[in-house]
Amino acid sequence: MRKIKICGLFRDCDIDYVNEAMPDFIGFVFAKSRRQVSTVWAEAMRPRLKSEITPVGVFVNESLAKVAQLLNDSIIEIAQLHGEETEQYIKALKSLTNKPIIKAVRVLSQEDIEAAQHTVADFLLLDNGTGGTGESFDWSLVSQMKKPFFLAGGLKADNIEQAIAATNPYAVDLSSGVETGGMKDRDKILEIVRRMRNG
Prior knowledge:
By secondary structure, the chain is an alpha/beta fold. The chain has helices at residues 12-21, 39-45, 64-72, 87-96, 110-116, 160-167, 186-198, and strands at 3-7, 25-29, 54-59, 78-81, 101-106, 123-127, 149-151, 171-174, 179-180, 183-184.
């Protein structure tokens, strides 16, 4: 069964929406973004999140200490790295925690994907750029993936099946595709999860 991640929750009601829809993962964005959340808010929301849903923290060039603390305090269970984090950074983070790591890859060419296959991160996340842009990349570039990956970038109800057929991801990652007017939309979240589960 394909996994689903709903990223960029930043309002209390967003937690209610995902608890109702039951995706596999949700994302808290700690990096600078219109969806950025504070550690205090994420810590307050964590106990409200149903235990079957895995919280992921999204970071860009964050200090190792902060990411490790959020993981070790179980505010998040997975770190998703979108910056210039090196393999040394990822290895250091792994040594400080025993939690999985997702490394985001900006896909401009097949070489970008091939270069990323050798990372010590547990998963890749393939996106068209800095994340949260709502634009997809050329899915035909995805082939011969050795590492499980999250597919992101411009995914929504009307292209999700095509995206999965083209790339065969471990999980799909939606943010703007389940929003209306920049806010998470309960009906869109419920619809996409229903489609994925019944597809």
